[in-house]
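User: Structure with zinc ion, tokens only please.
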Amino acid sequence: MQTLPLGHRFPMSKYELLKTRVSQEMGFIDLIESTPVSQGELALVHLPRYIEQVFAGTVPAQIQKAIGFPWSLGMVERARCSTGATIQAARQALMEGISANLAGGTHHACADQGGGFCVFNDVAVATRVIQVEHHRVSSKPFRVAIIDLDVHQGNGSARIFAKDSTVFTLSLHGAKNFPFEKEKSDLDVELADGTQDEDYLGALAHSLDVLESRFEPNFVFYLAGADPYKGDRLGRLSLSVNGLRSRDESVFQWARERGLPLAFVMAGGYGHDMQETAQIQMNTFALGYASWLLWQRQDAL
Ligand SMILES: [Zn+2]
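Assistant:
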């Protein structure tokens, strides 16, 4: 399994923590430095005017405010690297079955503007890149399911793919959480404040059944946000660490049993205790690696 270090989203320290722990404790995972996304790749999703504004530092004040942090060259570089890493993770997953980005999951970014700490929508851009690459060798549509389990709705992804029958957007999120004006995903599941493991896992199992009844994916992106955790500052839900492990395992197993390549990204996680957030993400990596091993065995049979 390949993972890609880089990109940072607020708060910065959590990415350093995760990268350090993965490199020290999971030496069996290959870490690859990411390649920054190009303007041409970004333009598969984002409007040229917005891309130019970000690169040139001329983003209108209200959009910059919606993004949530000030423009800088470093910000552009991080956003480009994070998006590039998700593209690389997707390509790697197509070759190996499963791969990941140590950051990514900037799902609030729309075609024409960023928002909610998201500059570019990495998963949307990576979806378009692998679809284009697939079309070079096949005339068949390449169908992508985006399973977004960050606690906040994937409003940017929902809007970008609203009229696209080749991409299925599934979002399980807090009904009362940001963004307060929701978009329409292909399947939205709104959860009440304080939702616990059992109800969450039941809703997820049902959602995966619905996804399967409505869509036949060739590939899965999984936004494994750590923010449904009960100790998250912004989450409003009440999942335990074990509940989140079961959540991850459900998605990995679902994809593996169907032979679907899967790339996962970290998305949000804002624990009162950053070590807990990092542990939840480490668990996702451990389960992803275990799933990769099972995938290899399955392949060998
Ligand atoms: Zn989130």
